[in-house]
Amino acid sequence: MWSYQHAGFTVHQLPVLRDNYIYLIESRTSNALIAVDPAEAVTVRNACKLLGKPLTHIFNTHHHWDHTDGNLALKKDFACVIVGAGHDADRIPGIDLAVSESAPPQVDGLNITVLNVPGHTSGHIAYVMDDALFCGDTLFGAGCGRLFEGTPAQMLHSLNKIAILNGSTKVYCAHEYTLANLKFAQAIDADNPALIERIADDKNSRRQHLPTIPSSIAIETSTNPFLRPLDGSFCQIYATAHNINSDPLTVFTDIRRRKDAW
Ligand SMILES: [Zn+2]
After folding, report:
1. What pLDDT, in 10s, does the model give residues 13-43?
2. What are phi and psi of 58, to 5 degrees?
3. Ligand 1 centre from 250 Cα, in Å?
4. In this model, does residue 109 exceed pLDDT 90?
5. Distance 226 CA to ligand 1 centre (A)
6. What CATH number was assigned to the domain covering residues 2-260?
7. Which are the catalytic amino acids?
8. What's this model's pTM, rounded to 2 decimal places?
């Protein structure tokens, strides 16, 4: 378990399954203890024991099993409140509180915003708490989620909502995919100095068995191949190299297509 301090809360990062992360958000001003996307229950239960606190909430970003499989067992243990997207409520196991951009969850001691970010799934949401972003499978370290239920236009719109957050915002995504994603990024953006620096940093972290996550919005906007289309000069260079139109959607769609075939 790794822990990160924010102004009013601590984020504990729990690696589970092959490459998933569950996050525990521990408020320092209330008894709130939130599990984000509990892929399984045992690891969360043990972490709660270690912290000496009961789980008060589960926040789901989307319905996939590797984000929700712990829901019902943890609800049985702790009678915690399960929070998920209102427009996807019938696919979130045990949901108690349906939220949206206009109706975010109210939790004592925490300032929470919800973003609708369809693309990976139609009902995917992200949670923003001050300078922490919990974005599930929408944005990854140097990558983005596959478009299982959405269009490239939807995903690009969702990623744009994330990209305009403050650059210092920490990106707590749900998988450790960064090194594999960086290989692809290098293939399409080889001359980017920020990318070259990131590859060295993240390889070093993994050599020491440390997570590459959280990254930050500033790191992602400068190196993530799925956020680079938001930069007009990148689009020009990419479009010329691949003989396509230089509008952001055409560039994004081409990069996503290449990654799917990678
Ligand atoms: Zn997913």
Report:
1. 999 999 999 999 999 999 999 999 999 999 9
2. -120, 130
3. 24
4. no
5. 17
6. 3.60.15.10
7. 62, 64, 66-67, 120, 137, 175
8. 0.97
